[in-house]
Design goal:
Length: 165
């Protein structure tokens, strides 16, 4: 299977072949990162969370293409919606944190973003471990999610320390 979510650039149309009652889907659209690995290493949390949100939106679209069995459709819909909600919430909360009413307000928004990042990691692992993402796809997205988690852990720890001193 092609790496749909990894940083590689692919163009084309959606192709599928019949396999009993369901289709095996291949995606030819773009699901790559907006940033290179080098850019990511120097990026701020807003840029990283935006890039991650874009990748998850494209993943959600991919997961819902083609025909699936009813059971698979239900699973993909449930897990995909949860992932879409949690992943895009990271960026939304960090955007809100840019103009906090106080440091405590900033900490609250950053802490919510961290919780959402950890939740996103859980949904990605469930999709991967149940065969809806390849190992390569999952590793690429989980790597980005882990980078976001580490940054948010650092941010929240520094703000907590500042508030407690």
């Amino acid at each position: 299977m092609t790496d749909y979510i990894n940083s590689s650039h692919k163009k084309g149309s959606t192709n599928s072949r019949k396999d009993e009652s369901t289709e095996v889907r291949t995606f030819g659209g773009e699901l790559k990162s907006l940033m290179t690995e080098e850019e990511k290493s120097n990026a701020q949390i807003l840029e990283l969370s935006y890039d991650f949100s874009c990748r998850i939106i494209r993943l959600y679209k991919y997961l819902n293409e083609g025909k699936l069995s009813k059971a698979d459709r239900d699973i993909v819909d449930a897990l995909g919606r949860q992932l879409l909600r949690s992943a895009t919430s990271i960026n939304a909360n960090m955007n809100e944190a840019q103009h906090p009413q106080s440091e405590a307000d900033f900490l609250s928004k950053a802490s919510i973003a961290l919780k959402e990042a950890r939740e996103s990691e859980n949904w990605l692992r469930l999709l991967s471990d149940n065969g809806y993402l390849s190992t390569v796809q999952a590793e690429s997205l989980l790597s980005d999610c882990s980078r976001i988690n580490k940054i948010l852990i650092t941010i929240t720890a520094k703000v907590k320390k500042r508030l407690n001193s």
